[in-house]
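Objective 1b. Sequence-to-structure analysis of PTS system, glucitol/sorbitol-specific IIC2 component.
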Amino acid sequence: MDIVVNLASGFMNLFETGGKTFISWMKTIVPVVLLLLVLMNTIIAFLGEEKMDKIARGASKNIFTRYLILPFLSAFMLGNPMSFTMARFLPEYYKPSYYAAQAQFCHTSNGVFPHINPGELFVWMGIAQGVQKLGLNSMDLAIRYLLVGLVMNFIGGWVTDFTTAYVCRTTGIKLSKTVD
């Protein structure tokens, strides 16, 4: 009987701990995420969707803007998963590479911009708690993660260009390099 009681107590303790964590987030991270979302929507409303579309089309013409600037802007302005929709302005040939860069960016920017990927915020919060328990500043880690992520996400997008070229060559599929 003691085993059953201990299992039930442990099970309930799990939810009590989760509830305490949730309430602490309601006082700290949730207001920040909410205000970042308000800022993002305000900027999009101020600029207009047409200008956002024009920015994306221009960014698609250069490898650096395609895999560094466009993923950053779309993740910051639209968040995950909506940031993937910016690929609609890219030629078919570059869409796989953009997806590779964008998918990684939604993770590596979470420490600095938690509104980008709130669904996985718990991962960053767990890491940040460990860093804070060591007496270190978690923002230092977040900035480093963001900067390393920008470089690695760019490389991931660029390498996917080569992969796409290989697949097209070996399968005989031709993907357009111009926007229709």
